[in-house]
Write a structure and sequence with these properties.
alpha/beta, Rossmann fold
Length: 307
């Protein structure tokens, strides 16, 4: 016996979420979700090529460049989640994809120590930088690491020149000694770090993630994202809606997604159950987090219990 989908405008999986309580639906809206845009698929496949590549001396890595909010970190995290860390039968930690944001400070010892810690090493570290480098190579081999990701690498461009030069030397050493592909990610200033070194310039193929190139692709992304929203009435994705999202959210993925999430919260809280220009206007006005009457009553009960 099959159960009829009460929300035929939604995929059955999303329809099941739409049937839940408002509180559950609001939690779901806050979660990150993948929309398989052409850029997401292209970059994802390039990362998989790096992962499948056999170890070679001076492996050619990737430099993923783009403005803040374009989706670089989201794509990299999604790739890491497809290849998660695990324990083998002997209890050894395996880290197929080593991800870290670099740097917290202009210090090569910090970079090496952070990588070692993320590989699960908890004992006292060797004192000398050279010994730490050797320990890192040993741990990467034991962990079976196939790809190293250094996110937010553009920050290096703001460091003193001596620190930038040290980073370049460490990067070349890392790729030479480990033979593991390295993926750098950050704003376009990452190119500045690479351009001044002939060897690094040749070792990193650049992928530029740009704002949405045309309205048709942008419309497709908005329609696909809205299809994953657990709203109980169908949202009409027309020209007026797309233009309003573009005007208020812009052509940066993060900003558009935040606007749509806020509008969906308003649609649930007000009971409209659709995203229209009205909900977008309210979202822009910051009304997404105004509590509903039921939320206000629940909050009051919590305060009385604590009192």
């Amino acid at each position: 016996m099959t159960t009829e989908n009460p929300y035929p405008h939604l995929d059955p999986r999303i329809a099941r979420i739409a049937a839940r309580s408002d509180k559950a639906r609001l939690r779901y809206i806050d979660e990150d979700r993948i929309v398989a845009t052409p850029t997401f698929l292209f970059v994802g496949e390039e990362l998989e090529i790096q992962y499948r590549r056999k170890q070679t001396l001076r492996a050619v890595g990737l430099a993923l460049l783009g403005p803040p909010g374009i989706g670089k970190t989201f794509i990299l995290k999604s790739f890491q989640e497809r290849h998660p860390s695990y324990r083998d039968k002997q209890g050894m930690l395996k880290v197929p994809v080593l991800y870290l944001q670099y740097p917290a400070e202009p210090s090569i010892p910090w970079l090496i120590e952070e990588m070692i810690r993320k590989l699960g090493y908890k004992l006292a570290l060797p004192r000398s930088t050279g010994a730490r480098f050797r320990k890192l190579v040993e741990l990467l081999e034991e962990a079976g690491t196939r790809v190293i990701i250094l996110d937010e690498t553009g920050n290096v461009d703001d460091f003193p020149r001596s620190a930038v030069i040290a980073f370049r030397h460490a990067l070349k050493w890392l790729t030479n000694e480990t033979m593991v592909p390295v993926v750098l990610a950050g704003t376009e200033v990452v190119a500045n770090v690479l351009d001044e070194d002939i060897q690094l310039n040749r070792r990193f193929r650049r992928i530029l993630m740009e704002p949405w190139p045309c309205k048709s692709e942008y419309s497709g992304f908005i329609a696909a994202y809205l299809a994953g929203m657990p709203l109980r009435l169908p949202t009409v994705v027309n020209r007026a809606l797309i233009e309003r999202v573009f005007d208020d959210g812009g052509d940066i993925t993060h900003d558009a997604v935040m606007l749509l999430q806020d509008a969906a919260r308003i649609a649930i809280k007000t009971g409209s159950e659709v995203i229209s220009v009205h909900e977008l206007e309210a979202a822009r006005g910051g009304r997404a987090f105004i509590p509903t009457a039921s939320e206000a009553r629940e909050s009051a009960r919590d305060r009385r219990r604590r009192g």
